[in-house]
């Protein structure tokens, strides 16, 4: 469905491409599952970042993904201070509660893989630096700087 508005058509295409990449990395064809992987992982990362870094990361996201990223976001009380991989994965997993899917680690790894392909190395390094060490380990080797 083309809207005849170039920016909107482009962001829909980019978002679809990201979802397809995430689904592939997760070993599924279910775009709904990929969407929830993207949403849950982005929310959990976003809430751990300083507000300024949140803005910097969002600037490199496709427009539609940026809207998802900011859904329900409040600057107050950020960054949240979860400290463990288990807490991170628990938060990512909350997005799957109504789906027949229960592997937040695979979901987070898939999203990190896609972010690593589309976000600048410098920005990835900044985001990784703000995450606990054991969460950073979820990033694929080629994305860890």
Describe this structure in words.
The protein has helices at 6-26, 31-46, 51-58, 63-70, 85-93, 104-118, 121-129, 133-136. Helix 1 packs across helix 2, helix 1 (6-26) packs across helix 6 and helix 2 (31-46) crosses helix 6. The protein starts with 5 loop residues before the first helix and ends in a 9-residue tail after the last helix. It has 145 residues and is an all-alpha fold. It is globular. The chain is built from 8 helices and no strands.
**How helix-rich are the residues, as a percent range?**
55-70%
N-to-C series of helices and strands? HHHHHHHH
- Average pLDDT figure: 92
Number of helices: 8
Cα-atom Rg, whole angstroms? 15 Å
Describe what is shown at a glance.
This protein is mainly α and 145 residues long. Helix content is 62%, strand content 0%.
């Amino acid at each position: 469905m083309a809207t005849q508005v170039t920016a909107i058509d482009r962001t829909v295409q980019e978002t679809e491409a990201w979802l397809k990449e995430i689904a592939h990395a997760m070993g599924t064809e279910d775009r709904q599952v990929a969407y929830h992987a993207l949403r849950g992982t982005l929310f959990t990362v976003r809430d751990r970042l300083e507000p300024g870094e949140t803005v910097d990361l969002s600037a490199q996201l496709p427009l539609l993904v940026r809207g998802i990223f900011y859904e329900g976001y409040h600057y107050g009380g950020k960054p949240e201070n979860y400290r463990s991989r288990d807490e991170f994965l628990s938060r990512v997993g909350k997005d799957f509660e109504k789906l027949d899917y229960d592997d937040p680690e695979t979901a987070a790894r898939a999203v990190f893989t896609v972010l690593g392909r589309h976000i600048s190395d410098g920005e990835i390094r900044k985001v990784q630096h703000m995450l606990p060490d054991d969460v950073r380990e979820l990033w694929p080797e080629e994305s860890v700087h």
